Structure formats: C-alpha cells, structure tokens
C-alpha cells in the first residue's frame, strides 16, 4: 500500500510547496539526505529524497509530520493538515470595532452623585431665600465643597465620548450654581433685602433647574443628548 500511494502522495505534497513526479516515473540517482521537513511551523521526521534538484516525501510521512490525517474515498486520497496553532488572528478593522457610545456605569454613578449634590446645594439656597433665613458662606460652603469633590470624581470616571460630553454639561451646571450662590451671598453681605421670590424670577436659577431635568433624562436613557438647557 505504501508504494502504491507514493505517486498520489507526491501530488498532494505539491500543495505544500514540494515538487512531485507521477507514480510511474522511475527515480534514478535518488539519494536520501538528512533534511528537516517543517509543516505549519512544526518539524517532522519525514525522510526527504533529493533527485535532479527536486525534493520528494512519502505521503504518509507527510501526514505524520504535519500532525494531519490521511483518508481514502474511492479513487481519492484525502490529506488533512491542521492549521498552524501559532497563526495569528488579524486584528479587527476600525470599521468592525464597536463604537464608543453611551455612558459607562462608573460615570453614571459619579454623575448622579454630582447632580444630587448640586440639587441639595440649590435646595438649601432656595429655602433660605424663600423663608428669609440668613444666607452665609459658612452655611453654603459645605454643599459647594461636596459638589466640587463629586465633579472631580465624575471627571476621573469619564472614559467614553458620551461621558466627556455629559461632563461638560455637568461642569456648566456646577459653574452656574456657583454663580447663583455667589450672587445671593453678595446680596446678603450688602444687607440688601432679598425678596422671597428672587430666585423664582432669576433666569440663571431657571437654567440650573432645566439643566438638571435634561441631565436626569440623559442618565435615564443612557445616551448623551444636548438640548441646550445647560448652556
């Protein structure tokens, strides 16, 4: 069987870059040399015969060298050699890479904390104005410091484009709240009368409130959408 399959084996070996001859062709001046056959990066023990400058190998030895299998179907000889284990998988192209969309969980968590701290800051300021309580730096500084700290944590958590876009709006919300707080503190220090409805008629306070609603809607949807409320 080994000799009958020799010619067919040579034809299959040609697929792997080895030159072959037909089974009926004699092999004058053939000489076996101590050569190493490497299939798919794996060195095998298949003897190689050199004749007239060409190389030949037995099909069964070739299958063993490549870690493959040899099968028969009718007048067909089927040689299966597995792909190299060291072959690399091509990196995905930019077109197939997932888009950097949506908010990350870390950013959402930090952003919600920041929105809550600004809301608390605004609530304390609004209640003081509406009820005629004294508005002092000491009374508001703790809320301002906490909001600034949470904004920093939110900035650190931002990693996607949506995160960074929303961070700009959160920063604008913080800045507007700081401006409004300083405005009321200034009126209080100057001993001016602060009407209970002062903030109700203040465009900046309304912008802060509208921005908060917009940010809350974005957090609920998980997607960035700027409706202009925070500008």
Key descriptive features of the protein:
single chain; 231 residues; mainly alpha; 2 domains; 7 strands; rod-shaped; disordered N terminus
Note the topology:
Layout: H1 6-13, E1 31-33, E2 37-39, E3 42-44, E4 48-51, E5 54-57, H2 59-65, E6 69-73, E7 76-80, H3 105-131, H4 137-157, H5 161-189, H6 203-221
Antiparallel strand pairs: 1-4, 2-3, 4-5, 6-7
Structure summarized in a few sentences:
The chain contains six helices and seven strands. The chain has 231 residues and is mainly alpha-helical.
Any overview of this molecule?
The protein has 231 residues and is mostly helical. It has 2 domains: 6-80, no CATH class; 105-221. Helix content is 48%, strand content 12%. The chain has 6 helices and 7 strands; from the N terminus they run αβββββαββαααα. It has helices spanning 6-13, 59-65, 105-131, 137-157, 161-189, 203-221; strands spanning 31-33, 37-39, 42-44, 48-51, 54-57, 69-73, 76-80. The protein has a 3-stranded antiparallel β-sheet with strand order 1-4-5. A two-stranded antiparallel ribbon has the order 2-3. A two-stranded antiparallel sheet has the order 6-7. Helix 3 packs antiparallel against helix 4 (137-157), helix 3 (105-131) runs parallel beside helix 5 (161-189) and helix 4 (137-157) packs antiparallel against helix 5 (161-189). It is rod-shaped and about 110 Å long. The protein starts with 5 loop residues before the first helix and ends in a 10-residue tail after the last helix. Residues 1-27 and 94-98 have low confidence and may be disordered.
């Amino acid at each position: 069987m080994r000799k009958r399959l020799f010619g067919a084996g040579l034809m299959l070996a040609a697929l792997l870059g080895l030159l072959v001859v037909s089974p009926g062709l004699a092999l004058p001046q053939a000489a076996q040399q101590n050569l190493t056959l490497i299939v798919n990066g794996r060195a095998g023990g298949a003897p190689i015969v050199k004749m007239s400058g060409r190389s030949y190998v037995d099909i069964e030895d070739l299958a063993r060298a490549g870690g493959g299998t040899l099968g028969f179907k009718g007048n067909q000889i089927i040689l299966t050699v597995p792909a190299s284990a060291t072959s690399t998988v091509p990196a995905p192209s930019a077109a197939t890479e997932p888009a950097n969309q949506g908010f990350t969980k870390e950013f959402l968590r930090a952003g919600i904390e920041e929105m809550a701290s600004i809301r608390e800051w605004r609530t304390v300021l609004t209640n003081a104005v509406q009820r005629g309580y004294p508005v002092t730096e000491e009374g508001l500084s703790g809320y301002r410091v906490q909001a600034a700290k949470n904004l920093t944590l939110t900035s650190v958590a931002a990693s996607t484009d949506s995160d960074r876009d929303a961070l700009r709006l959160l920063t604008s919300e913080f800045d507007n709240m700081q401006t409004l707080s300083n405005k009321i503190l200034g009126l209080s220090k100057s001993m001016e009368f602060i009407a209970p409805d002062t903030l109700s008629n203040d465009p900046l306070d309304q912008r802060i409130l509208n921005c908060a609603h917009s940010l809350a809607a974005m957090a609920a949807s998980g997607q960035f959408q700027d409706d202009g409320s925070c500008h």
